[in-house]
From TrEMBL:
The lineage of its organism: Bacteria, Bacillati, Bacillota, Clostridia, Lachnospirales. It holds the Pfam family DUF1858. Gene3D superfamilies: SP0561-like. This is Hybrid cluster-associated redox disulfide protein. InterPro entries: CHP03980_redox-disulphide, DUF1858, ScdA-like_N_sf. PANTHER family: BSL7085 PROTEIN, DUF1858 DOMAIN-CONTAINING PROTEIN. PROSITE patterns: PROKAR_LIPOPROTEIN (PS51257). Residues 3-56 form the DUF1858 domain.
Length: 61
């Protein structure tokens, strides 16, 4: 399944087992945060000041 920026972190975690390591590698410690179930990858990237396209590229490799 292709990961898209409008997917919630919770969705990504369910479909991509190595997503936590990838997200934490970008400095996103929100993997265990309760808001991760409703926050999109794009929203989390904006909050953390990270280019969402780089995250999506890494998640889809």
């Amino acid at each position: 399944m292709e990961i898209k920026k409008d997917m919630t972190i919770g969705e990504v975690l369910r479909v991509k087992p190595d997503a936590p390591q990838i997200l934490m590698g970008f400095g996103m410690g929100c993997v265990g945060c309760p808001s991760a179930q409703a926050e999109t990858i794009e929203e989390a990237a904006m909050v953390h000041g990270i280019d969402v396209n780089k995250i999506i590229e890494a998640l889809n490799q």
